[in-house]
Sequence to fold (550 residues):
Amino acid sequence: MCDILLSTYQLSLFVLSAFLITGSVSLRYRTADRIANEEIRGRSWQAAHPESRSLNSAPSRGRPKAATADQCWPKENFALLQPPGGCPEQNWGTGSITHTLRRNSTVPTDLVSGVVHGVHLTLDFCAHDANQSCLGTPTPTFPAGAYCIYQYSGIVTSRETSSHLLNHLCPPGFKWSWLAIDDVNLRNKNAHNGQLPQGEFFSFSTVQYFCCREDGDANQEIVLPTKKDFILFPMNSTGLCQKVKGMTAIKSQIFYDTSDDSSKANGPPSEPDFPPPQYSVDVPKDYWGQGLRVSICYYTSQGGSSGGPVVPPTCWPNEDFALFQSAKGCPSGDPWSPGYVQHTEGHNSKVPAQIKGSVTPGGLILGYCSHDAETQTTESSPNAAGRCTASNTATFQPGSYCVFVGYINSTNIFDKSCPQDFAYNWFVIDDVDANNHNAKNGTVPEGEYYDFSTVYYACCRDDGFPSTPISLPNKEAFVLMPSETDRKCQAVIGMNYEYLDVFFDSELIESNLIPLPPQPTIQLDYVIDQPKDQWGAGMHIKVCHYTPIA
Fold:
């Protein structure tokens, strides 16, 4: 595929060179036929996907509105990802790019204006023209630092264009870089509309052009407009969000679930940050493989009213619940207490290294973390250091995930002891009878613990999409469980996740999950080929292990 693309680039360069000799070629220049074809393709997409929002995010029209002095960006050509609240000012141009990928792409929609519909990922952009009007004195240049923006200009270029020209198209102090996204060929509906970052747009791949700089310290504050939220990219070398005076930075990721052979970053001396590419394939080579995570830095004004997200919560929801314990331990704080359950199982049981536990000659031991709402320090707690307030305490948001019942509440009714908007469920582990040494200690999930079997009580919800990130404390590792409905890990802002498997080598007849339709259930699979009524030997419990994005 790469040989074909390179041949295409070389041919394009030959054709474009004639234009470049006589003058600039507009990026928005299109023949009548191409305009007609793109408009037909756009209408066809919208007809086939009426539930999606319009891809035609057209450039602003009419006389540009002047920005106030504190909104004035440098008088340069550049582009940024668009936040949900819109571009920094109405006179910025807008556009959108749609990628046809695999089904597991994710975009943090509370930080980025974008959407995932099945295999299609659409992102919106803001384009700033050097000639845009601005009241007052604009910022003269971009400050020194360690960050990236998109390249934007009116000149059609390719990677074969001389690096001197490509660097010249970046604002002063920046150098050119590029990122290739290998879109999926089958039923491809790639599309692009409006004013966009510089790049190369093919039916089955997309090349994005960046401008990056590393002439300053990411930890030293720089000055940029703070009236509205905006998005930059961190440098690969530091992995840090550039500090901006008066702004809080939130780091997150966009995951492109790409095809399997040509997602690549290049363009020395710098490139956007992805730490390093985390591929779905087992043995990625260089930067080629399936799946590409690109880090972003979202900036929101401290105490501002931009409509953007608040600082990520530091306290967990003030609810009773329990989780599998990460190998890194339980989250810190008084509400959390650890516990362990020992199951007597066969010799083939397995516990992933990321989960607290071990496989023993007679079974397995698993660690848990229980959260007690009564011990959580709140605004009413006397002399409580590090109080949990309404502004820093998370709530369990709509999504597709499960937790364990932490405590039976004052109703003494099992199925009314889940956090709000979760549904109660339970499953049975049929432990081995012979030489049984089941045991538990510490604080463990609510359930029924017998000599020869264990019943776990679970709480699940599937009122949202796993690809839509939810907000939870994101400074420490933790574990959630996927729901049976979607069988995917719930995306969480600021967190990487791994989809893992805990295997109980249980007995033949009683490892069972009994759902209470239409409630969601935790995800489990069976080892035997044709289990009947969910009864069978062996039990796989799927778990999602989350770690902070570096």
Summary: The chain has two domains: 2-301, 321-376+396-548.
